[in-house]
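FORM 7B: Structural annotation worksheet

SECTION A. Query
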Amino acid sequence: MAIDLGTIRADLARFHTGKLVEHGVSPRGAGWNGEAAQATRFAQLAQLLPNDRDGGFSLSDLGCGYGALLDYLRPRFGAFDYAGYDVSDAMIDAANARHAGDADARFVLSSELAPADYAIASGIFSLRVGRNDAEWMDYLESVLDMLDRNSRHGFAFNSLTKYSDADRMREELFYADPCVLFDLCKRRYSRNVALLHDYELYDFTILVRKSS
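SECTION B. Predicted structure
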């Protein structure tokens, strides 16, 4: 199925710029419910990164918003090079203002990543911006292919889960089948894939680690 990536990205940019204008630089301004859930998601994604905490790696953050993931990672890891990417120019402006003193961080208005050791995408698959399930899965797979191409050692992403309580699911959101995405990642990207679905939120995280 042919998908119009440019239109999807424009729709996402409008939505997230609107959220930032409405709620300011905050988890709600980035489409999250609150700080606690945001930190829980970041903790799952961070399991992809080297656990020696010595830094020395490069990281791309797709859908970086105002740079909240960088705020989470800096105290927990050593020095590392960070590049955040977003399709909303308002988000990039906010991120640059918030992290102006971080010499090892940069923020780019783009949906395409430059190569890095690791890539992370948090929360970018939740809002389907009017697309049906088939269209959104095509979009999701195209993004995963791009994350794979531009990460040397691995990538991680999260998604709302189809195992969410039915009475809490919303029509405008996309709920993925974690088993389908786990299988896709195992078959297409790496033998070393972890599915994390045990952290009391209505979503899951997948870590794809590449062999040296």
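SECTION C. Observations
The CA atoms of residues 126 and 174 lie 5 Å apart. The chain has one domain: 5-209.

SECTION D. Sign-off
Analyst initials: ____
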